[in-house]
């Protein structure tokens, strides 16, 4: 099967997946996070920090991620995360571990759109809770604009949680005004949460393939009268 046929099958799968969204249990965690792009660089290594601050009727919650990633081949990237969260008592501590693999299926610009796949395994700290995520990554460029879509299927299992399948959907429309400043609009859909809001991101390139990426977004929940706002930020250094 060549890449064109594979891309076509993936597109059909993506729309079929989204069509049954309302018939499948959706993710009950925080849906807002990084919108993934399907690209991998050869010999890429990266350090990443991500932060989520959520303000709703239950108060404020805070989560941070630290990660190290490295490409194994020209189109496969593996990343390891440690996740920290602030609990109800205001104490911040380790909450989970993650390992994530991304596969760039098509070369950037080779076909009408760029495609990738994601596989992530997460284990809750001190709890028998496992979460396996598989995702379809899509990106299409229109001149100086880019449209990125993520569709995730999640399976949660373990002795401390009910086994179930869930889904998430993320969308980002980005305008590449300058390399260092790129405004965007993001949409997130999950269990009891639909959010939309502005985001800004940029990239500063250095010698070789060294580069620094940054992202900042503010997502507002569209779930009725209750307050549900999320501030997200990320810094990524590739070398």
What best-fitting shape do the alpha-carbon axes yield? globular
| Tally of individual domains | 1
Q: Number of helix segments? A: 1
Strand order of the largest sheet: 1-2-3-4-5-6-7-8-9-10-11-12
Whole-number mean pLDDT: 88
Strand percentage lies at over 45%
Order of helices and strands: HEEEEEEEEEEEE
Q: End-to-end span in angstroms?
A: 34 Å
Report on the structure:
This protein has 239 residues and is mainly β. It has one domain (3-171). It is built from one helix and twelve strands, in the order αββββββββββββ. It has a twelve-stranded antiparallel β-barrel. The radius of gyration is 18 Å and the shape is globular.
Summarize the structure.
The chain has one helix at 3-19, and strands at residues 45-56, 59-71, 76-86, 92-104, 114-124, 130-142, 145-157, 164-175, 182-190, 193-205, 211-221, 228-238. It is mainly β.
Write the layout of secondary structure elements.
Blueprint: H1 3-19, E1 45-56, E2 59-71, E3 76-86, E4 92-104, E5 114-124, E6 130-142, E7 145-157, E8 164-175, E9 182-190, E10 193-205, E11 211-221, E12 228-238
Antiparallel strand pairs: 1-2, 1-12, 2-3, 3-4, 4-5, 5-6, 6-7, 7-8, 8-9, 9-10, 10-11, 11-12
């Amino acid at each position: 099967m060549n890449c064109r046929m594979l891309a076509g099958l993936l597109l059909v799968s993506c729309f079929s997946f989204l069509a049954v969204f309302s018939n499948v249990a959706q993710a009950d965690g925080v849906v807002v996070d990084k919108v993934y792009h399907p690209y991998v660089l050869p010999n890429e290594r990266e350090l990443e920090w991500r932060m989520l601050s959520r303000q709703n009727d239950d108060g404020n919650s805070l989560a941070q991620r630290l990660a190290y990633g490295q490409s194994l081949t020209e189109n496969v990237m593996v990343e390891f995360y440690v996740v920290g969260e602030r609990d109800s008592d205001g104490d911040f501590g380790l909450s989970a571990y993650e390992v994530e693999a991304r596969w760039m299926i098509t070369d950037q610009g080779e076909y009408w759109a760029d495609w990738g796949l994601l596989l992530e395994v997460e284990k809750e700290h001190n709890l028998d809770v496992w979460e396996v995520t598989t995702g379809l990554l899509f990106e299409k460029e229109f001149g100086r604009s880019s449209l990125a879509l993520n569709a995730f299927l999640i399976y949660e299992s373990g002795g401390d949680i009910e086994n179930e399948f869930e889904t998430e959907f993320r969308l980002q429309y980005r305008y590449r005004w300058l390399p260092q400043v790129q405004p965007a609009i993001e949409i997130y859909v999950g269990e009891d949460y639909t959010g939309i809001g502005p985001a800004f991101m940029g990239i500063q390139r250095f010698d070789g393939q060294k580069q620094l990426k940054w992202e900042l977004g503010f997502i507002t929940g569209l779930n009725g009268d209750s307050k549900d706002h999320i501030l997200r930020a990320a810094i990524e250094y590739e070398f």
